[in-house]
């Protein structure tokens, strides 16, 4: 006889229990759950996912925040970032001494075409930040540094084996874009680690790289080109150097961007809580076997979870779009960012003009038949290797200005904070004089507090001399004291802070008439008991501490004094270089002019970068990306027309023209120092 198959049940049906049996069952079940987890308590069961308030309460603690790193770790990271900011600009100029070999290798028709790989690389340095800087504000700085450093090595190696001129330019463009992270993101990383009062020295070291890199690359390139007679070895050298920097970056560079660090910590806390909930549910046997089978991830579920990591959600796509458009919106909507970006571009263009055209003045032209004759443009006829030493004037100017920035930038900033932005004699006071002035201000504040306390006691005594009649409940005293209304006055008790009370008491308003003297209890604290107690009974009123020393805060404009000095020196250096080269004076005179140009460009370059970082935190990477784009475009354009300009106008008139353009920017730091805060408030950028 066939039996009817029975469907197995997950658990036997529970019998009907009485109320007492049900309470006993629940108590035993709770004890069983607690026994599964000895640390659990009835109030903590079951665990729930973190709420929004709990997630917001999670903050970075100690060394988790890059601002709290040790001094050694901060400066180690700064040195690594500075190396990255040094190696990429070096790659732009290391090919300049080999442009003649490029010309002969690819049978080019013009000297300008042989400089094109240099300009294309610099254009890549400007384009890259518009993609990479927003990515660093989304996924973090460290992944962008590592990935782009590897790509930079790969494209440098490919450029060295380029079979044709077009391929060389394309590969150099991508190499420049990949190498742009160092010159563009470094300022933001330093802003992540250092407070505004400590940022000057770190920025001085970092800001030296984008300008010293081209100089060092030109000097090294001259000797390598003279020894090898081949432009490919220049790129092989660049590949080796960039590979060393890549290895250092992978081994020693950590994440610095605070929002990403905080987001990772909160995400880890959320995942940890979810894992604890899962473990608790498994330990307590709250999930039935069928539910476990239902929740077991299938292949499709696993595939979906994997693809979600690479395919962003709508919110992530919106963030990426906002981040990618942020540099453009800054450039075209914020006048401060736009003005300084263009002036930085002008300074950077002059640096590359000097780097590419120094061989025109100092190097012999006998091997270049298409070069201008000595009658058209004077030359000192140095050999290829020795002509690399002509960059020392520019390089020494960079070094002197960098050390000046390192030692004076933070000092000037701190003094201007103490002086509340007043220029002049404050900048020339010694540290002892400043400390004595601060102590005098502190003693004055203490005396003001004593005066306030004395006035408060006098107010209490005056109030007690005039007892008020009438209704206290509504504080409206209609009974007259005195002979007529002409001698009457009104009083108002305003709230002040009482150190013995937790809160500030609301204002109690009353109307009364006196015949002798008006009471001005402006510093008297009136108790809430005024509604039920006559004013004459208040004998425990204490004086308010109204004189509070206001905390003085720094402003980004305090970085600009050295920028003004740099803008003033730049025309002097240009005129000295141009006219001494025009009349072919002793070679030291144009080198001194180059020295002044180097000093001025570093002073402007570093102070403007720090100003942009201070002004546009936490979007400093996008702000510096704007500056990098403009300066790279102008740096790429200046060498292309420089030789034609020098041939048509001569060294003297050409440099006079550039000096006149430089003078146009001279009022900018003065105007921003006076009205910078107003402009920043008017053109606020919220991302």
Automatic annotation (TrEMBL):
InterPro entries: MFS (IPR011701), MFS_dom (IPR020846), MFS_trans_sf (IPR036259). Keywords: Cell membrane, Membrane, Transmembrane, Transmembrane helix, Transport. It is found in: Cell membrane. It is a multi-pass membrane protein. Residues 77-677 form the Major facilitator superfamily (MFS) profile domain. GO terms for molecular function: transmembrane transporter activity. GO terms for cellular component: plasma membrane. It holds the Pfam family MFS_1. The chain crosses the membrane at residues 75-95, 115-132, 144-161, 173-194, 206-227, 233-253, 330-355, 388-408, 560-581, 587-613, 625-645, 651-673. Belongs to the major facilitator superfamily. DHA1 family. Polyamines/proton antiporter (TC 2.A.1.2.16) subfamily. This is Related to multidrug resistant protein. The lineage of its organism: Eukaryota, Fungi, Dikarya, Basidiomycota, Ustilaginomycotina.
């Amino acid at each position: 006889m066939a039996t009817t198959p029975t469907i197995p049940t997950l658990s036997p049906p529970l019998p009907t229990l009485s109320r007492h049996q049900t309470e006993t069952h629940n108590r035993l079940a709770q004890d069983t759950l607690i026994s599964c987890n000895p640390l659990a308590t009835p109030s903590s069961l079951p665990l729930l996912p973190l709420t929004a308030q709990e997630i917001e309460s999670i903050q970075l603690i100690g060394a988790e925040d890059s601002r709290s790193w040790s001094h050694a770790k901060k400066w180690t990271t700064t040195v690594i970032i500075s190396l990255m900011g040094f190696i990429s600009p070096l790659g732009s100029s290391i090919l300049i001494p080999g442009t003649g070999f490029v010309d002969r290798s690819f049978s080019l028709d013009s000297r300008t075409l042989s400089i094109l790989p240099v300009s294309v690389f610099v254009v890549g340095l400007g384009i890259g930040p518009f993609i990479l800087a927003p990515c660093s504000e989304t996924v973090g700085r460290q992944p962008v540094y590592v990935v782009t450093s590897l790509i930079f090595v790969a494209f440098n190696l490919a450029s060295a084996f380029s079979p044709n001129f077009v391929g060389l330019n394309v590969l150099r463009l991508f190499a420049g874009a990949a190498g742009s992270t160092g010159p563009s993101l470094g300022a933001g990383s330093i802003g992540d680690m250092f407070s505004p009062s400590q940022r000057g020295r770190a920025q001085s070291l970092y800001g030296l790289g984008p300008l010293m890199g081209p100089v060092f690359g030109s000097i090294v390139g001259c000797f390598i080109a003279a020894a090898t007679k081949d432009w490919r070895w220049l790129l092989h050298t660049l590949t080796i150097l960039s590979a060393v920097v890549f290895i250092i970056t992978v081994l020693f560079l950590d994440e610095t961007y605070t929002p990403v660090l905080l987001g990772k910590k909160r995400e880890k806390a959320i995942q940890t809580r979810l894992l604890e909930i899962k473990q608790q549910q498994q330990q307590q046997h709250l999930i039935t076997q069928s539910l476990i089978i239902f929740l077991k991830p299938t292949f499709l579920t696993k595939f979906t979870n994997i693809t979600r990591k690479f395919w962003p959600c709508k919110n992530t796509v919106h963030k990426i779009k906002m981040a990618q458009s942020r540099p453009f919106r800054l450039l075209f909507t914020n006048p401060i960012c736009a003005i300084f970006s263009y002036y930085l571009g002008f300074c950077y263009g002059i640096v590359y003009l000097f780097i590419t055209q120094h061989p025109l003045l100092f190097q012999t032209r006998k091997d270049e038949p298409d070069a201008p004759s000595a009658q058209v443009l004077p030359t000192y006829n140095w050999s290829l290797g020795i002509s690399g030493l002509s960059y020392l004037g520019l390089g020494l100017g960079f070094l002197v200005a960098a050390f000046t920035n390192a030692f004076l930038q933070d000092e000037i900033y701190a003094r201007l904070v103490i002086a509340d932005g007043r220029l002049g004699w404050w900048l020339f006071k010694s540290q002892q004089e400043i400390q004595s002035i601060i102590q005098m201000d502190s003693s004055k504040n203490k005396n003001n507090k004593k005066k306030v306390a004395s006035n408060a006691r006098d107010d209490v005594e005056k109030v007690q001399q005039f007892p008020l009649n009438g209704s206290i409940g509504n504080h409206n005293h209609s009974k007259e004291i005195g002979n007529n209304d002409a001698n009457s006055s009104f009083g108002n008790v305003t709230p002040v802070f009482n150190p013995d009370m937790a809160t500030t008491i609301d204002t109690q308003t009353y109307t009364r008439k006196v015949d002798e003297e008006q009471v001005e209890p402006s510093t008297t604290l009136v108790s809430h008991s005024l509604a039920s107690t006559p004013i004459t009974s208040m004998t425990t009123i204490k004086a308010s501490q109204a004189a509070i020393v206001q905390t003085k805060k720094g402003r980004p404009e305090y970085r600009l004094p050295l920028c003004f000095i740099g803008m003033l020196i730049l025309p002097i250096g240009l005129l000295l270089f141009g006219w001494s080269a025009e009349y072919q004076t002793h070679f030291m005179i144009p080198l001194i002019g180059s020295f002044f140009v180097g000093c001025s460009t570093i002073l402007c370059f570093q102070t403007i970068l720090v100003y942009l970082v201070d002004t546009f935190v936490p979007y400093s990477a996008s702000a510096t990306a704007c500056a990098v784009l403009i300066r790279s475009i102008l740096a790429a354009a200046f060498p292309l027309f420089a030789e034609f300009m020098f041939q048509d106008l001569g060294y003297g008139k050409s440099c006079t023209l550039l000096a006149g353009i430089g003078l146009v920017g001279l009022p900018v730091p003065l105007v921003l120092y006076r009205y910078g805060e107003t402009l920043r408030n008017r053109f606020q950028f919220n991302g």
